[in-house]
Amino acid sequence: xxxxxxxxxxxxxxxxxxxxxxxxxxxxxxxxxxxxxxxxxxxxxxxxxxxxxxxxxxxxxxxxxxxxxxxxxxxxxxxxxxxxxxxxxxxxxxxxxxxxxxxxxxxxxxxxxxxxxxxxxxxxxxxxxxxxxxxxxxxxxxxxxxxxxxxxxxxxxxxxxxxxxxxxxxxxxxxxxxxxxxxxxxxxxxxxxxxxxxxxxxxxxxxxxxxxxxxxxxxxxxxxxxxxxxxxxxxxxxxxxxxxxxxxxxxxxxxxxxxxxxxxxxxxxxxxxxxxxxxxxxxxxxxxxxxxxxxxxxxxxxxxxxxxxxxxxxxxxx
Length: 318
Fold this sequence. Notes:
Helix content: 25-40%
Strand order of the largest sheet: 5-4-3-6-7-9-8
Number of domains: 2
CATH class of the largest domain: Alpha Beta
Shape: elongated
Structural class: alpha/beta
Order of helices and strands: HHHHHEEHEHEHEEHHEHEEH
Largest sheet: 7 strands, mixed
Distance between the termini: 44 Å
Number of strands: 9
CATH superfamily of the largest domain: Vaccinia Virus protein VP39
CATH topology of the largest domain: Rossmann fold
Number of helices: 12
C-alpha cells in the first residue's frame, strides 16, 4: 500500500501566509505566485524540472493531485481554503528547506509512471528512461529480453518501468540498502508487478550467484569527490550512499565491470550510467570500446557494453 504524501501542516503558516492563502483564489494565481517566489529564491532545479515555472506547475498540480495533462480550463477554478493553504505551505517548505519537490509530494514520475519516493532513495531522473520507453530496441530489435537485472535499484523505477513497458520480462531489483529495497517493494505493489519483479538486498551480484540475464542496467553511485563537495543544497537531502563513489566516482562501476560478464548471457548487454564521471572512466580504461549513448531529451554519461566486449577486455578490469 502506498505511503501517504507528507505535506507541511497548515498550522505552520505564518500570519502573512495565511492572509496570502485568502487572497490568491485560482490555480492560475498560485502558479504565477509560486513561480515568482522560486525565481526570487534562486532554487536549483534538477529533480524532474529545469525552471521556476516548471517547478511551480509540478508543485501546484502535485499538491492538488491533478495530472500533468489537466484541461487548461481548470486554471481558473477556485481552490478550497485547505488546498490554498497546502500549496502555500509546500511552496514555503521548498524554499526554506531546499528539499527537492518529489520528496515533499512523496512522488516522482519516471518513464511515464509515478513512483513513491522519500529520503531513503534517489529521486528518479535518469536518461535511461528513453531506452526503456523504446524497449531497448537497439539491442533487442526482434524479441525483448526475458530476464533483466536492475543493479543499485533504489526506488526500483528503472526495473519496474522496464517490466511495465516489456510485460513479458522478469526483473530483479538489487540494492545494498535495506531501506531502499523497502521503497522498491512499495513501488512493486503500487504497479502490481509482484509476479514478475522482486527486490533483493545484496552487495551487487552477491545475491544472484549463478543467475544470468539478457540485460543488466545500473544507475550506481558515480559522483566523484569534487562534484560531491560542490553539489547544490537540494542534493544533500538525497542519501549520500547513493551518490558518492570515491575520488573519481568509479568505485562501484569498477566492480560492475569486473563481475557483470559472469551474470550475462552470451548475447547479453550491460548498460550503466556514470554521468560526469564518464571522463574518468575513459581515462581509466582507454582500450575499452564504451558505446556512449545519445538521448533526445538530454543526458550524458550512459554507456553500453556487450557480453563479448566485457569478456574480451576482462584483463583491463582486474
